[in-house]
Specification:
The chain has helices spanning 9-19, 33-39, 44-52, 56-66, 82-87, 113-124, 184-190, 202-211, 231-244, 249-258; strands at residues 3-4, 7-8, 24-29, 70-75, 98-101, 105-108, 128-133, 143-151, 154-162, 173-181, 217-220, 224-227. With 265 residues, the chain is an alpha+beta fold. A six-stranded mixed β-sheet has the order 5-10-7-11-9-8, with helices on one face. A two-stranded antiparallel ribbon has the order 1-2. A two-stranded parallel ribbon has the order 3-4. The protein starts with a strand and ends in a 7-residue tail after the last helix. Bound molecules: 1-O-phosphono-alpha-D-glucopyranose (G1P).
C-alpha cells in the first residue's frame, strides 16, 4: 500500500492488468488484506462529501478506483514462499491460464508489460515469463534462466534456477515479476520441495515442469523495470514517475535542479 507518488504500489499492477484486458483479479496478500480491499472498495462517505462539495475530478478518481475490475482477495496464511502464494489461486484460476504480477515489480512501459506477454502467449501457446538483462553480481537476487533466443526478445527456456550464486548463474537473464502460467502449475507446486530461503519457489515448480517436457518461453519486456520493493529502487521509481507527471513534473524538475546535484558541495 506504499504510495508511489500518489497511488499505492499495488494499484499500478492492477491498472496494468486491467489495461491488458484482464477482468478478474485475485489479490493474494499477507496481513494488509483489509486495507487493500478498502482502498479498492466504493467509499460511500467520501463520495458523498466530494459530491456535495462539487469536487468532480476527485469524485471521478475515487469512483474509478472502485470500478477498476472485479477484485477478490485471499490471504496467504503462512509465508511459505511465492510458489505457495500462487497456489492460493487454484480455485480462482478455474483450470484456465492466468497471469501473475508481483506488485513490487513496476514496469514503466508504453505498452503494458502484461499486454506484451499476452501477445507472446497467444503466439506460443505456452507459459511466458518476463525477463531482463541484469549486469554483474545483482543477478543472484533473481531467478535466472538458461535460454536460447528464438525470435527478437523471445527465448525458449532450457532451465532456470532461483537466486543462484553469481558464479553459478546460467546467464544474465533475470526473471522479473510477470508470468503467464497454465493450470498444470498447481500440481507442480504441490510436488515442489522447499528451495532457496527455505521457501516453496515458483521457479522450482516451473523447473520441475521443464524437466517433464513442458515448454516455457521468456519475453524480454520493452520498458523500464523498477524494484519498488527495494528502498533505493522505490526512491528511483518515485522520482521518475513524478518527473513524468503533467501536473507535477515541471515544478519537481525545477526543484531537483535547484539542488545543484552536480556540485561537489
Ligand atoms: C521473486 C522470484 C524471482 C524473481 C523476482 C523478481 O523473488 O522468486 O525468481 O526474479 O521475484 O522480482 P523475490 O524478489 O520475491 O524474492
Amino acid at each position: 500500500m506504499l504510495p508511489l507518488v500518489d497511488k499505492p504500489l499495488i494499484q499500478y499492477s492492477i491498472e496494468e492488468a486491467v489495461e491488458s484486458g484482464i477482468e478478474s483479479i485475485l489479490v493474494i496478500t499477507g496481513r494488509e488484506k483489509s486495507v487493500i480491499a478498502n482502498h479498492f472498495d466504493v467509499s460511500f462517505e467520501l463520495e458523498q462529501i466530494l459530491k456535495e462539495k462539487n469536487k468532480t475530478e476527485m469524485f471521478e478518481m475515487v469512483r474509478g478506483i472502485a470500478e477498476i475490475a472485479r477484485i477478490s482477495y485471499i490471504r496467504q496464511q503462512l509465508a511459505l514462499g511465492l510458489g505457495h502464494a500462487i497456489y492460493q489461486a487454484i480455485d480462482f484460476a478455474e483450470n484456465e491460464p492466468f497471469a501473475v504480477l508481483l506488485a513490487d515489480d513496476i514496469v514503466d512501459a508504453e505498452k503494458p508489460a502484461l499486454a506484451q506477454m499476452i501477445e507472446a502467449y497467444e503466439k506460443y501457446q505456452a507459459p511466458i515469463i518476463a525477463t531482463m538483462q541484469v549486469e554483474g553480481e545483482a543477478i543472484s537476487r533473481f531467478g535466472v534462466i538458461d535460454a536460447v533466443e528464438v525470435e527478437e526478445n523471445i527465448f525458449k527456456i532450457n532451465d532456470m534456477v532461483e537466486k543462484p550464486a553469481f558464479e553459478d548463474a546460467p546467464s544474465d537473464l533475470a526473471i522479473i515479476g510477470r508470468y503467464i502460467l497454465t493450470p498444470d502449475i498447481f500440481d507442480a507446486i504441490r510436488r515442489t520441495k522447499k528451495g532457496a530461503g527455505g521457501e516453496i519457489q515458483i521457479t522450482d515448480a516451473m523447473r520441475l515442469m521443464l524437466s517433464e517436457g513442458k515448454d516455457f518461453y521468456a519475453l524480454k519486456l520493452e520498458g523500464k523495470r523498477h524494484d519498488a520493493g527495494d528502498k533505493l529502487g522505490f526512491l528511483i521509481a518515485t522520482v521518475e514517475f513524478a518527473l513524468q507527471r503533467e501536473d507535477l513534473g515541471g515544478e519537481f524538475r525545477e526543484y531537483l535542479k535547484s539542488l545543484n546535484l552536480n556540485d561537489d558541495a
